Amino acid sequence: MLLLYEYDIFWAFLIISSLIPILTFFLSGVLAPISKGPEKFSSYESGIEPIGDAWLQFRIRYYMFALIFVVFDVETVFLYPWSMSFDVLGVSAFIEAFIFVFILILGLVYAWRKGALEWS
After folding, report:
1. Is residue 112, in this structure, part of any structural domain at all?
2. pLDDT tens for residues 26-53?
3. Residues 6+ apart with CB under 8 A from 72
4. In Å, how far from its chain's centre is CA 29?
5. Do residues 117 and 111 lie in contact, with contact meaning Cβ atoms separated by under 8 Å?
6. Is 24 buried (19+), middle (13-18) or exposed (0-12) by CB count in 10 A?
7. Vertex 110: Cα angle to 105 and 119 (nearest 5)
8. Structural domains in the chain (count)
9. Which pLDDT score is estimated for 41?
10. Is 74 helix (H, G, I), strand (E, B) or coil?
C-alpha cells in the first residue's frame, strides 16, 4: 500500500520551488520603475549615440567548441558515479560504460573529421 503522507516533503518542496519564481517576477513587475522615453528605445542607455550597426555576427565555430565541451563535460558527470561503484556493478556495467564511451569517441572522431575542432 502506498502511503501518500510520505510525499509531504516532496509536495512542499514542489510548491515552494514553484512559488518563488512566480513571486519574484510579480514583485519585480510591481516594484520596478517605469520610464518611457526615446532613450529607452535606443541600443544603449548611456546617453551616447551609437555608431554603426548593433548587429554582430559570431562565428559558428565558437558554438561548436562550446557544444563539444558540454558533451564531454556531461560524459565525465555520468562516468564518475560508475567508477566509484565499479566493483559492485560487475562486468555488465563495464560493458555498458564501454559502449557509452565508444559512442562518445565516435562522436569526437566525427566532429574532428568534419573540421569542427579547428579554430581558424
Report:
1. yes
2. 999 899 877 777 666 666 666 667 677 7
3. 104, 108
4. 26
5. yes
6. exposed
7. 105
8. 2
9. 65
10. helix
Look-up of cell digits 516594484: 31
At 68, list the grid cell: 563539444
Residue ranges making up the domain that contains 107: 49-119
Q: Give helix then strand counts, H and E, for the chain.
A: 4, 0
Give the residue, 65 or 54, on which the prediction is more confident. Answer: 65
Are 113 and 54 within one domain?
A: yes
Q: Is 1 helix (H, G, I), strand (E, B) or coil?
A: coil
CATH code, domain with 81: 1.20.58.1610
b/e map of 52-66 (b: 16 or more CB within 10 Å)? eeeeeeeeeeeebee
**Co-location of 73 and 26 in the same domain:** no
Q: Are 85 and 100 in contact (CB under 8 A)?
A: no
Q: Give the C-alpha separation, 51 to 48, whole Å.
A: 9
Residue 43 lies in a domain: no
Distance CA 82, CA 77 (A): 9
